[in-house]
Amino acid sequence: MNTKIMNKYLLETTTCSELIKENPEVKRRLNSLTESDYHFTCTIVKGEILFGIQRLPSGKRKQDLEERADELFAEVQCDPIPEHVADTYAQIKVAAEQQGTSLGECDLWIAATALTLDAILVASDSDYERIVGLGLRLEDWKN
Questions:
Q1: CA 127 from chain center: how many Å?
Q2: What is the pLDDT of residues 65-103, one digit of tens each?
Q3: How far, in Å, CA of 49 to CA of 71, rounded?
Q4: Using one digit for the tens of pLDDT, what is the confidence trace for 21-74?
Q5: DSSP secondary structure, 85-133, as one string
Q6: Does any domain span residue 60?
Q7: d(Cα 25, Cα 143) in Å, to the nearest integer?
Q8: pLDDT reported for residue 1
Q9: Please, what is the end-to-end C-alpha distance for the chain in angstroms?
Q10: CB within 8 A of 70, min separation 6: which ones?
Q11: Is residue 1 part of a domain?
Q12: Which entry of 10, 18, 76, 95 is 20 to 30 Å from 35 by CA?
């Protein structure tokens, strides 16, 4: 029997980082999702996480984080970014510029992905609050 998806949650870089750090509140919120909720991350988030780890000096900490990241991406679906997200990206970038708001390129792509896929963006990055007025739904599971 197919379950209808009620909510989609796109886990942003800050949330994935908290899961890698095993933040109990973030883990509790993730575990509280129901079968009808779909949670995922995207290739940009995975790239940001891997970049952050790769730039660390060799050692136990880096190795531990690599292992935890591997575990996270084995458990959390990492979806590719659909081509039509580019349209949303362009729209929100123009709107943000017109508002005098700046966001990093990766953040714009992640926000565009959430908007296009009608997903709730789960992030503890306050920069996203600047574009909530453009229709972005945002939750912070850290607080």
A1: 13
A2: 999 999 999 999 999 999 999 999 999 999 989 988 888
A3: 13
A4: 999 999 999 999 999 999 999 999 999 999 999 999 999 999 999 999 999 999
A5: HHHHHHHHHHHHHHHT----HHHHHHHHHHHHTT-EEE---GGGGGGGG
A6: yes
A7: 8
A8: 47
A9: 35
A10: none
A11: no
A12: 18
Identify the CATH number of the domain in which residue 130 sits: 3.40.50.1010
In the block, residue with structure tokens 């590719």? 80
Q: Which tokens hold the place of 48?
A: 């940001």
Helix (H, G, I), strand (E, B) or coil at 46: helix
Tokens 């909510």, residue located: 7
User: Which of helix, strand or coil describes residue 117?
Assistant: coil
What is the torsion angle, in degrees rounded to the nearest 10, for the CA atoms of residue 112, residue 135, residue 119 and residue 116?
-40
Which structural domain range is residue 109 located in? 7-139
Would 2 be classed as within a structural domain?
A: no
Give the pLDDT mean for 1-19: 88
Give me the sign of the Cα torsion angle 47, 78, 5, 13: negative
Q: How many domains is the chain built from?
A: 1
